[in-house]
Model the fold of this input.
Amino acid sequence: MDGNPGDGRELPDRIPSPEGDGYHGPDRHSSQRGGSLISWLQRACERFNLARRTPGRGSGHSSQRSHQPDITHIQRPLHRAEEIAQPSSGDGQLVEVTNDHDDASIDTASTGQPCSACPSDDWEPRHHSGPNEVSRDTQPIPGPSTSSHSVEHLRRSQRLSDNQTRASSDLPNPVGGAARSQGSEPTEDPHTMTSLGKPLHRLTEKQKKKLFFIEALRTRYKVDYEKVQPIPYIKDRLHCVDKVYVEGGFEFMPTEHVTRGSGSWERLESYKSLFSDQRIQSVRRIIEGEPGYGKTTFTLQLAYDWCHRVEGSPMQDVEVLIILRMRQLSGIRSIYRAIEVHLLGSDPRVREADIAAIIRESKSAVVILDGYDEYPDQHSRRETDVQRILKLTLFENTPVILTTRYLPDYLAPITKIVRLTGFDERARDEYIRKAVVGEDKFALSIIKARLKENPVLEDLCQVPLIFVMFAHIAYENQDFQNFKSVTEFFRYMIRCFHEHLKNKSKELNTVRYSIDENEHAALDKLAFLAISQENQRITWSREGMCKQLGQEFYETYQALGIFVEEEVVSYKSSREVEVRFYHKLFCEWYAAHHIVYILSQPGHSVSLEELFRHMKPEDVQYVYRFACGLNRDVGSSIIQYLSDPRGTFQFRRLCILEQSGDVESILGSVRSLCSGTVIIKGGDSRLLQRSTVQLLDIAATRDILVSSLHLDQCFSKFDVTNACIVLKSGIRLTNLKTVKVLRVSGRIRETVGDSNGIVVNGEELLGLFRSCEPLEEIRFEGREFQLPHSLPADMIPPTLKTRNIMVSYEDRRGMIHQLKWDDGQWQTTTYGPALRIPQEELNQQWALEELAKPSTDGIPISCLHLDRCFSKFDVTNACIFLTSGLRLTSLKTVKVLHVEGFTGTGAFPSRIEVTREELLGLLQTCKTLEEIRFVGWEYHLPLSVPAELIPPTMKTRNIKVSYERERKHGVVHQLNWDDGQWQHQITSDGSVRVNIFQEELDQQWGKKELAVLSTAEVSINRLYLDRSFSNITDDTQAIILTSACTIPVLQTLRQLRIRYTDVDLEMFLKILAYTNECTKITQLVFRYCDVPNEVDPEMIPPPLKQRGVEVKWLSKAGKLHLLDFNKGSWKRLRL
Done:
């Protein structure tokens, strides 16, 4: 058979079918389908053309084609829809394969229904019962130039044959017409239905661009998710991500605003509930994970799910998915430019403006930014779009997922944090079966046995990357050894890489490598310089790396798999080959060697402060750990360096664990750590918990006192038989004889699915006392624990009565009780961390009754929380009136009074003014009061308190009085008793915003806060003028409020919102002029007001256009509009 005219290729003698690679003549289907020979030949041609251009995927799809196919379809973008619609023929031209029933055909991928003119048994419904099942009716479309794909992968693609490729591919064709042969121009019928639900000839230019854009993304992602390489040196075993991905653990922080270390983590059922779980609903989500926990693999799985519309996946109904590797965004400030360069290859048909419009107008779009810790410009002084996205001033309504090792310095307040917790035993078993041994149960048992031989190794394998390495190496090597630290494991793993390469070099016709595995000083220095700079850059040009390391060295490490080549398109649209490490952990391994070399030189003058200046432990923790494990003397100095506030206690424990073996060399570090509070957290990895237990064992053996041991949400029970504490992870604390204070804390609030809690009976409690000889105090905190109502006096040994250990217990109501050793009864001492009086009247009555007893008995109340129920303070009767009209008179034992009101915007109760007299009277009534906090827009406090009105006792008591108009999003004001003025402290969560309402006092407070923020040059993310805007000064240099207060030009303002204030054309232009003066502003929004229907484009300040400032208008009817600067008119947006 001859090929297409002009293509220079011959066709095989057999026509492949989807069912196999043989010739099945027309008789095979004639009785079933009743179709003609011509129809059968037509379908066969379609399948043949499809098979010729469909590449194999993943591992296990090697083929034996008779010729090497052209792979230009990978490098050439889809042609314009106008070109697709023009059939052509002739020498060197396209030949269109038509369909006799084009008019009757429909897009089965979109509708799930068969074509009415096709035989019914030739159609299968589109569905996915799981991620491994792929629809037959989908097929790939040649996409744009791939911006970042493995060079090795492209070389292998050139060797794929035609005969054993699948009859249908994983990617959907944007049009449902006939398939085209590989390397040919597209010839789809313009009347065929597209995946957008319309015939091609009826698509608008914008829809055609969107069609190309989506299919280009699918093609781009396919290159990445089909070349997953679990082991660096085994390059002939590439896998599709769906074949090797195993879901580890996910946890999330349920609090409204998250900062590191606050709140408690709760388990997320699955990654598939990432968008559906109501507890983490937000347009900003961060996936946080330690190195090697599978953040990038997770994004590849999401890409696979999106391309295949996997049922149950969070990507199933997403129309547009953007995934960017942040290490590739150096010097690219615009997110749209990054998409154009790295996902589309700078194809001229879709430009930045088109991308912005597609994302903005799509039914559902998701943006994934992978690897913020590798983002070179995260400390850039010039604001980038990535920073704007994090602050919620860009993609305000578009869900964004950020993966990172650590939290950024600036976050939007609505950000939800999800963290990866690694592999448990179930996940490890699943991976071994899925990617290593298959159904070989004996091999599975051998690998698991090796893992169980060493508990430290088992804990290390909670890290997915380390476990994957272990599983494959243990399966292939019989002489596998035990390890006591991650440094030992990594050293052994690198040795295995080199041994594998040496053995492979012994084969015939293979390249021989002679580089010594211990000679890598140049690489050590290169890796150190990469991660020790403020803006890390962990990719290199191939030419530059070869020049620094030498060609032979470079080729050796590329053969080892430690170096990975990627072909990328730079922001200047030039194509380059970049080199990176297989994983950042390898970069940290070699950088640690250079650090050890520097610090081990005799008489070196390098300070650790200077050496680690730009290396945060949370970012490059393995650099510290590897250095401690490679050299004990260097490790001891690093641990001492980390004993300062710059290093966390948990991290220092891991560094000490790397020095396991010689206890004498780390006794100083152990004494230093034990002098403070030793903490074991429930959220810590088993490795981290075990390192703490080893530290306690060393302290007990060497009689080093542990000042305080805090078991934070990890206590399970006390084992009386073995005299040890059992943690929830199963790890046991067997040696507590030097602990002075034991603090056991649980959950501070009830959660869904809570059981009855942890019961500690009398026998366990007494056994705990006996096992800790120097114990002076034990505290049970949180509502998770249930202690016995009393201890029988005859059970209490005389020695415990003599020691008089302080035992305190917080019950489920928040009351704190102390054990009396003389009779074994509990005595109530304090009313919990906070006693709350809610907004509802019935609940207020219950709270007042509960509050009366401690006030009468003189029991201190640590905190009284008035939650949106404060009305006023009655100076005459010395009591607080609640919103229900009830009086609160029991205030004499309150230590902290927290008055919280409304903190949002919109309709809420009228303002409550707290006068100077009320404030001073309240402070004098509460004799034990140490602090009072007012939070919320609802309250108006005096701008100052005259010094002559302040009683001398107030200055002596120095009560802390603070006022915060909006929690964690503005400025905290604290009263200075010396002069009666307010001092100001800016909240540092990166999302400062100021709301100003119509009351004069509120406007004065707002002006004061803006002045504080402007002086400190703090970015103001939003200024909200709610019924408070009046005018603009004639010189457009200030806003005039309804109270005649003025707000000058704010150079750090990002967004200005004006609400419930109608503006005419003159006023509108003045507001635009004021906005133009605020050089950092990105958005001007009018809400629920009337604005001019149109404006002369010539009157709009040109800098607004150049800076890309958005002017939006939400009408009183609830319709959102965007001002078109070129036309001067409003265009409707989808809410």
Summary: Residues 1-41, 47-188, 256-262, 749-755 have pLDDT under 50 and may be disordered.
